[in-house]
Design goal:
Elements lengths: L9 H14 L4 E5 L2 H9 L10 E5 L4 H4 L2 H12 L3 E5 L13 H6 L4 E3 L3 H10 L4 E8 L4 H13 L5 E7 L2 H10 L7 E5 H7 L5 H7 L3 E4 L3 H17 L4 E3 L11 H10 E8 L3 E10 L8 H5 L16 H5 L31 H8 L9
Helix pairs in contact: 1-11, 2-15, 6-7, 7-12
């Protein structure tokens, strides 16, 4: 497949692994932000191809994983309501709430519909005018434009039985939260290419300047990731701190302007709690006041400032999402915590680090080079 197979080319992968081996003279720790990159790293054994001393740690780049339990509980409460239909992406259905998950609620008669787009939920609202239809809006900046479009269209069509349970989060504030931690050992970042396709990368420039740390916007195929690591290591070895764009075939500095304008029209930046990380200032999106009629929190009487709910005491997802530990370092990994019986969200989502290790580690050999 053109534009895919060339980024899985073993010869190119070997070129970059050899180049990395030549450039590295001392230990370095790099964090990839995106869960898609984490899965590529684990699936293709990229971390095992790197020289000793080069450590990859996995960041909070899985939006399902960072959705806090109290918002999952609100979604469950909506799904149990006899006059409501909750629409969600499939990944959310197995994420544990305080005492159950959405899939179990669906199995016992709750109105839960799996959709592939917020616009699918909008169509369900058109077809079910006697029901309150709620879309569970989860994701980074990548998915925010389509959620914004659904609300915008609902307002234009006066579709008053449609609303959002919003849990959209923003990447740059999470990176700053990680860098501000006294436990931080991250020396460079691979930024999420799909987020930057929408938002561009101007928001990362102040982070590079403030923390003097390299950030490389990176794609998701094995050669993308290896090239991103190489560019980041080059900077670290030279003592540089710059923003580089490895994913130039998709990302421009300014991003997708119409998508950004739509996000700004419908949403405003708000504080947001992240599972395992706590509240991060200015790290989320909430509906603007002119779209308050489409806010499920208001419709269903939820308090958006309610106290946080706690993860399972066995789950170390907070340490994993901040890069302090890797999934296999959790005592429950693969035994008391599996995709069939997860203790935490990183074992559920298709972008979760624990799910990646469970699915790929030891089953797929490194890229043949």
């Amino acid at each position: 497949m053109k534009f895919v197979s060339e980024y899985r080319d073993p010869k190119l992968a070997r070129y970059y692994t050899d180049a990395i081996a030549r450039v590295v003279t001392r230990p370095h720790t790099i964090m990839e932000i995106c869960g898609g990159q984490t899965h590529a790293i684990v699936k293709y054994g990229i971390d095992r191809l790197l020289p000793d001393g080069v450590t990859l740690v996995h960041g909070p780049g899985c939006p399902v994983c960072v959705t806090p339990i109290e918002i999952i509980d609100r979604a469950i409460a909506i799904a149990r309501s006899p006059n409501a239909i909750l629409c969600s992406f499939g990944d959310m259905l197995r994420v544990p709430g305080s005492d159950t998950d959405l899939l179990s609620v669906k199995a016992t008669g709750g109105q839960v519909r799996i959709v592939y787009s917020p616009l699918d939920a909008l169509e369900i609202a058109r077809q079910n005018r006697d029901k309150e239809v709620v879309f569970f809006g989860v994701g980074f900046e990548t998915t925010a434009p389509t959620t914004a479009m659904a609300v915008y269209q609902a307002a234009q069509q006066n579709l008053t039985n449609f609303s959002l349970l919003v849990s959209h989060v923003l990447v740059p504030p999470a990176m700053e939260a990680i860098l501000s931690s006294p436990q931080c050992r991250v020396q460079g970042f691979l930024a999420a290419g799909h987020v930057c396709t929408v938002m561009g990368y101007t928001e990362y420039e102040p982070i590079v300047e403030r923390y003097q740390i390299p950030i490389v916007v990176t794609g998701f195929e094995p050669v993308d990731v290896l090239q991103g690591i190489y560019l980041c290591l080059q900077q670290l070895e030279r003592g540089e701190a710059k923003l580089e764009n490895q994913y130039a075939r998709s990302v421009s500095r300014e991003g997708n302007q119409p998508a950004r304008e739509l996000i700004s029209r419908v949403f405003e930046v708000v504080p947001r709690r992240w599972r395992g990380l706590g509240e991060i200032a200015q790290s989320g999106l909430g509906l603007r006041s002119e779209y308050a009629a489409f806010d499920a929190d208001g419709k269903f009487g939820f308090d958006p400032h309610s106290a946080p709910h706690l993860d399972s005491s066995e789950c170390i997802s907070g340490e994993i999402l901040q890069g302090f530990k890797k999934p296999h370092q959790c005592p429950a990994f693969g035994t008391r915590c599996t995709p069939e019986r997860p203790l935490g969200a990183p074992m559920v989502s298709s972008e979760g680090a624990c799910a990646a290790y469970y699915r790929w580690r030891g089953e797929v050999e490194p890229v043949a080079v």
